[in-house]
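Title: Prediction job returns without error message
Component: structure pipeline
Severity: low
Priority: P3
Assignee: unassigned

Description:
Job completed but the reporter wants confirmation the result is attached to the right record. Sequence as submitted:
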Amino acid sequence: MALYQIYREQVERRWKGWQKRRSSQTQYVPQLEWAAHVVEYVNWIHGLVSTKLASGPLRAVVPLLHQQNPQIHLRMYKRLQGRPRFIPPGYLHATRRNLTVDIQPETAYVKALTVIHPLYFPELAKCPRCAATGPAVSWTGWTPSGHREVHGIDREETAIGYQLRCQRCAEGAAGQQATGQDSEANFCFATTNHLFWQAYEHWEIPGEDPASHTIGGAMKLTINMHINKLESPTS
């Protein structure tokens, strides 16, 4: 019970923090709360699958992954990729648990959420400005204002991204500012911002089958975001 209470407090703290930073965006509470639940789930899964093979608590708890067949860990990780679209449970889902469902009309307006996170797309760890990879770039956390509304070609949904920081661009911007030169101090990019995707061709956007350049339904939203050119530089 204590663990569940901690989880609920984390979810509430997260969506209320987003709400304070969304002065120009929708503040529909059920949507914010749904996104906060998804984020906590992704954080938990990411913490499990990103544990290094050589050490970590997962080795002691599930030694099979690391001692008997390390490839199981790799297969589990790959199965997560390309499936970052979370659909809120509807009325039919509720009837499977309780025949007399307590219908709450406001939850019917909760939209699906696409998560653009390194758990699902590790290949996105590349600076969109200078193409730096490896130690020069690092993931710094979720976008501070939460999800974005996505006006897609065929549906209305939402998307939430992670932020990528480029140390090379940060050092270059600091150097130009020190000498009084004009600089574009863009070194932190959100994966739900058009600046992150402007150097990508549409066939380069990751999907479920990169070999055949087939783009999954979830990544169509990313293309839509690229077309819509979201204005905020942080989310």
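Comment from assignee: result matches the submitted record. Residues 52-74, 209-223, 225-235 have pLDDT under 50 and may be disordered.
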